[in-house]
């Protein structure tokens, strides 16, 4: 499939000269995420060589400035679609590219809308990934996590990202003190200038651990929006009802070790470990009784894969661990 799709074919698609069979071929090729960036590179090259609009730069810049003034720190919602400018009117260049692509994708433009506006980084079960964002900030994604970053304007107009899962952030401070905002789907966000922290946002709850610097934790309690300013060494947790707890923790509990494939348990219940196995490795864990679920683990060890982790748990607690596919049974001997 990859060998059949090349720049010339993509350019003919942009020119609307591709056949229906070729358009279907391109649609299948685009379903592979690794082809997205190459597609956008060719799109930008084609746009530069085939301008579709007569732009009015001063007017476009003024319109964009007015938009930022009336919508501070706003992020396009997943369902938002940029307006398509008239034939002789201009708009800010990145949105012009996005709008023109949406017009060109006649066989399913809506399907690719989020891909046009945002770049998405994902990790599979058992995988971690290190990223460097356009502003120089560093991110390490834990397993089964997703980070969405604006494709255009990040680091100049805005520094807002959307996280699902867990990630460690090392945010650089900008000369103009631009805020860096980590949004989640858990009714909270983290606002910083330049600092290092870890955000956890999964189904069973959320937490933020601050290593250095200062962050503002914005959250929703019922119909009320509240905020907490965190200091280094503090951990904020939210349960499923968005009830908040703030406490000081040891430094060893602040820095994530999953990027090094090292696990540190400090009075961690077996039930909490079961949640970790489900979230990070996609396993369905069954514990034989509540007494066993309440037993705690103490220790630090390295595990290159989930089977090594299960073996270490079995040894630490002297329990039976039986795995069959994605199902794991934990029982006393």
Helices and strands in order:
Layout: H1 7-14, H2 20-30, H3 36-49, H4 57-70, H5 93-104, H6 113-117, E1 118-122, E2 129-132, E3 138-141, E4 146-150, E5 160-170, E6 180-184, E7 188-192, E8 196-202, E9 205-212, E10 215-221, E11 224-230, E12 234-238, E13 244-248, E14 262-269, H7 270-281, E15 284-287, H8 290-293, E16 296-302, H9 306-317, E17 319-324, E18 327-332
Parallel strand pairs: 5-6, 15-18
Antiparallel strand pairs: 1-4, 2-3, 3-5, 4-5, 5-8, 6-7, 7-10, 8-9, 9-12, 10-11, 12-13, 14-16, 17-18
Helix pairs in contact: 1-3
Instruction: Indicate how many domains the architecture comprises.
Output: 3
Number of strands: 18
CATH architecture designation of the largest domain: Sandwich
Spatial gap, N to C terminus: 52 Å
Q: What is the level 1 CATH name of the largest domain? A: Mainly Beta
Structural class: alpha+beta
Strand content: 25-35%
Q: On the 0-100 scale, what is the average pLDDT?
A: 80
What kind of sheet is the major sheet?
13 strands, mixed
CATH topology of the largest domain: Jelly Rolls
Binned, the helix content reads 25-40%
Over all CA atoms, what is the radius of gyration? 24 Å
Q: Would you identify the regions where 5 or more consecutive residues have pLDDT less than 50?
A: 74-92
Give helix and strand order, one letter per element, not per position.
HHHHHHEEEEEEEEEEEEEEHEHEHEE
Number of helices: 9
Shape: globular
């Amino acid at each position: 499939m990859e060998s059949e799709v090349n720049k010339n074919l993509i350019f003919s698609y942009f020119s609307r000269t591709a056949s229906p069979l070729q358009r279907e071929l391109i649609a299948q090729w685009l379903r592979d995420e690794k082809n997205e960036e190459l597609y956008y590179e060719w799109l930008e090259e084609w746009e530069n060589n085939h301008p579709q609009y007569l732009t009015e730069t001063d007017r476009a810049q003024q319109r964009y400035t007015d938009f930022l003034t009336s919508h501070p720190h706003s992020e396009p919602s997943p369902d938002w679609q940029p307006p398509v400018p008239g034939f002789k009117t201009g708009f800010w260049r990145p949105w012009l590219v996005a709008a023109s692509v949406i017009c060109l994708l006649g066989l399913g433009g809506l399907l690719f809308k989020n891909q046009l506006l945002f770049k998405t980084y994902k990790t599979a079960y058992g995988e971690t990934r290190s990223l460097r964002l356009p502003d120089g900030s560093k991110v390490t994604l834990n397993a089964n996590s997703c980070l969405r970053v604006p494709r255009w304007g990040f680091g100049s107009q805005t520094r807002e990202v959307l996280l699902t899962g867990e990630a460690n952030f090392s945010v650089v401070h900008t000369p103009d003190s631009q805020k860096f905002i980590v949004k989640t789907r858990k009714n909270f966000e983290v606002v910083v200038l330049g600092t290092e922290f870890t955000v956890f946002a999964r189904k069973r709850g959320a937490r933020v651990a601050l290593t250095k610097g200062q962050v503002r934790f914005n959250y929703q309690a019922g119909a009320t929006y509240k905020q907490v300013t965190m200091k280094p060494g503090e951990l904020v947790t939210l349960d499923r009802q968005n009830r908040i707890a703030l406490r000081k923790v040891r430094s060893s509990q602040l820095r994530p070790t999953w990027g090094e494939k090292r696990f540190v348990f400090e009075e961690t219940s077996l039930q909490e470990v079961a949640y970790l196995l489900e979230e990070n490795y996609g396993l369905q864990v069954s514990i034989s009784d509540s007494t066993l679920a309440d037993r705690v683990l103490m220790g630090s060890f390295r595990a290159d894969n989930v089977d090594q982790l299960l073996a270490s748990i079995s040894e630490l607690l002297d329990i039976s661990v039986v795995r069959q596919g994605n199902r794991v049974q934990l029982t006393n001997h």
